[in-house]
Structures are given as structure tokens and as C-alpha cells.
Amino acid sequence: MKQITFLISEDRGLQLLDYFNRHYPNICNVEYQEEHITFWFNELYEELVILGIFHAGLSIGMDIITSKV
């Protein structure tokens, strides 16, 4: 299992959680807790999960900023 965690405000985190669960069910587990949202998924779905996160974020009006770490 792979994991991606983002720091996010409570209102946006809950919106993203709701949107992702409605539009991308059964792809991964999503949890929001204390200004962090975490996605757990099988490596086979990595690209789909990342695209889903961007799609969901843009759909709820979030500014998406990416960086390579």
C-alpha cells in the first residue's frame, strides 16, 4: 500500500474527502484528520489516485500547487 498525505484546511479537507468518496469510490481509502488528508491505495492505482486528487481539488475550487520533494 502507498500513502499520500496533504496539509489542508478543515473546510477544504472535508470537501475533498466528500468529493473523492462520491466520485472515486473503491479506488483507495481516504481519511481527514486535524488539517491533514491521507489517501491509502494499491500501487496499481497510483496514477488514477493522483489524477483523481487533482480533479477533485479543481472541482471544489482549490488552487493546486505541486512541488517535487
How would you portray this structure in words?
- This protein has 69 residues and is α+β, with helices and mostly antiparallel strands.
- The chain is 41% helix and 26% strand.
- The protein has helices at 10-23, 46-59; strands at 2-7, 28-33, 36-41.
- The chain has a three-stranded antiparallel beta sheet, with helices on one face.
- Helix 1 packs across helix 2.
- The protein is globular, with a radius of gyration of 11 Å.
- The two termini are 20 Å apart.
Task: Quickly list its features.
69 residues; 3-stranded antiparallel beta sheet; 2 helices; 3 strands; 41% helix; globular
Structural class: alpha+beta
Low-confidence stretches: none
Q: Trace the largest sheet across and list its strands.
A: 1-3-2
Gyration radius, rounded: 11 Å
Main sheet: strands, sense, barrel: 3 strands, antiparallel
Q: Give the termini separation.
A: 20 Å
Structural shape? globular
Order of helices and strands: EHEEH
Mean pLDDT: 83
Strand composition percent: 25-35%
Q: Using DSSP, what is the number of strands?
A: 3
Q: What is the number of helices?
A: 2
Portion of residues in helices? Answer: 40-55%
